[in-house]
Amino acid sequence: DTAVSQTPKYLVTQMGNDKSIKCEQNLGHDTMYWYKQDSKKFLKIMFSYNNKELIINETVPNRFSPKSPDKAHLNLHINSLELGDSAVYFCASSQDGGLSEAFFGQGTRLTVV
Amino acid sequence: GQQVMQIPQYQHVQEGEDFTTYCNSSTTLSNIQWYKQRPGGHPVFLIQLVKSGEVKKQKRLTFQFGEAKKNSSLHITATQTTDVGTYFCAGYPGGKLIFGQGTELSVKP
Fold first, then answer.
1. How far is A47 from chain B (nearest CA, A)?
2. pLDDT of residue A51
3. How far is CA A92 from CA A3, A12, A23, A105, B68, in A?
4. What is the mean pLDDT of chain A?
5. Which residue did the predictor score with more confidence, B98 or B15?
6. Contact residues, chain B, for A107 at CB < 8 Å
7. Exposed site from A110, B17, B28, B59, fewest CB < 10 Å?
8. How many CA within 13 A on the CB side of residue A89?
9. DSSP 8-state secondary structure symbol assigned to residue A59
10. Quick check: A11 and A109 in contact, CB under 8 A?
11. Is the separation of the CB atoms in A101 and B45 below 8 Å?
12. How confident is the model over A92-110, as pLDDT tens digits?
């Protein structure tokens, strides 16, 4: 069983569209994250949730809205997609925030055309 | 803001040469983690250091945590082609897991 799974793996869409990326973890972890990895490989934290509650919301455009229906799921919805949103988005989870190892999903490569 | 800085950004080595990447934080860290991301893959946890001055080894990899808990290093002895990838350090300043910029290692056979 995959510990942290994301869908879809690839997403190609036009500017202005709205899209969602789903993430599920079966590790029983309390904390989940979304990271954005740009072409230079930099991993930028976007959001952090602990037990379904938003803990960290970095300076991310409000077109990005995370939703956590339960502590095993953290979805990312993006409105009005822009070219600059093209990147790989990683979901991750850990038991004790940054005090224990984070497990990453395989990533979603988003291409906005 | 709180940052975790990592150098160098790229390192190209001949197979068999050693490799080191360095990580520095502007604040004292409670712990430091290291991850490896293979090309096209996702970051995978390697190790966590918690104690001041701690040194841990995993086969050819040696990890150090500075005395002041503000810097860390990863050293690979006698690199192999399987070591190719991007190595990230990650710290936990201010309640969030922040990654360094990563060091991309390429190994020429």
1. 9
2. 83
3. 10, 22, 9, 6, 29
4. 92
5. B15
6. 42
7. B59
8. 29
9. S
10. yes
11. yes
12. 999 877 788 999 999 999 9
Nearest to A45 among B45, B88, B97 (CB): B97
State both tokens at B14.
């001949």
Q: Count Cβ–Cβ pairs < 8 Å, chain A vs chain B.
A: 64
Rounded CA-CA distance B1/A44 in Å is 13
Cα A75 to chain centroid distance, Å, stands at 7
Torsion of the alpha carbons at A84, B12, B68 and A34, rounded to the nearest 10 = 30
**Residue showing tokens 């969030």:** B96
Mean pLDDT score of chain B? 94
Amino acid at B33: Q
State which amino acid sits at residue B100: G
Q: What pLDDT, on a 0 to 100 scale, did the predictor assign at position A109?
A: 97
Hey, is the C-beta of A101 within 8 angstroms of any chain B C-beta?
yes
Task: Chain B: give the shortest CA distance to residue A15, in Å.
Answer: 25
**pLDDT(B42) > 90:** yes
**Partner-chain contact B97 A101, CB within 8 Å:** no
Q: pLDDT per residue over B61-101, tens digit each? A: 999 999 999 999 999 999 999 999 999 999 987 678 899 99
Of the pLDDT bands very low, low, confident and very high (cuts 50, 70, 90), residue A65 is very high
- CA dist A90 and A102 (Å) reads 11
Residue A55 to residue B95, Cβ atoms within 8 A: yes
